[in-house]
Automatic annotation (TrEMBL):
Keywords annotated in UniProt: Membrane, Signal, Transmembrane, Transmembrane helix
CC annotations in GO: plasma membrane
Family: Belongs to the anoctamin family.
Gene Ontology MF term list: chloride channel activity
Name of this protein: Anoctamin
Domain Anoctamin transmembrane: 1-306
Transmembrane regions listed in the UniProt entry: 146-172, 193-213, 241-265
Amino acid sequence: MLVPLAIIGLIVFLYGIGSAGDHIPVKDVCDKNNKGVWYMCPLCDRQCSYWDLASTTCLYAYVTHFFDNDWTVGLALIASVWATLFLEFWKRRQASLAQEWHTDDFEDEEEPLRPEFAATVTTLKKNEITGKMEPYVPKTTLYSRYGGVFSIIIFMIFLVIAAVVGVVVYRAAVFASLSGNKDKTIQTRARMITSATAAILNLIAINLLKFVYSKLAVWLTDWENPPTRTDYEDSFTWKMYMFQFVNTYASIFYIAFFKSGLVVGTPSRYKRIAGEFRLDGCSEQGCFLELCVQLLIIMVGQQIIGI
């Protein structure tokens, strides 16, 4: 079911490529007659001068239109509906297979205890329905384990946030260094170089933390010791989901929502690290292209690493 949506997305992307030359903002920005005509205010309060709109943003305007064009809104609506339909059809297929295989109430009535659970639990409790003695974990022990697991997960999430903050500091330091370089080519490409290298660092950090946490999640679930195999898989799944969501999307959320002028400041009022390095804000073209670069490197990098 994902193939049709991928085809629609490719069509929208190809439309963006084909229509970029006729897009009025792109035509205005890339008009050769406008070079040297529209000068914009400096983007920072140190080592920045006035800059020419046409010569600086033409390429970015083209590339941005590839991904953000008139058909993108329609694609977003289709993707939203498609995601809902995909989930509902999956539930329908799951219910059909459960009925066909006679496993509708397997988890509630027929699933046996895990051998590891039965072997390690020493306390027994009488089952009020069957009258048999069954392994039982006291609630105090159970809640203490839940508290320990939750504390470790929160600690790992803070490690992810610390990694993102570290990359933010890297962005500020590298961008300041490249912006002050005597080579004009490096100066003009400073933000793109910073964004690309920072995205690679994020990719490395994501996979290192993922490797460590995947081992830790197995150990935590074993320590928690759920009674059935389904409970074990559910517990392991939510642990991995919570961490992987923050680990994968923290840097993307930072670019999308925390690089605006409200966070990084404005000329003469920039917020700086240690009073020297200014927080990395959006470029003169906005954060959309940088967000695309971040998504491209992380998503494609994840696919390559997973091969």
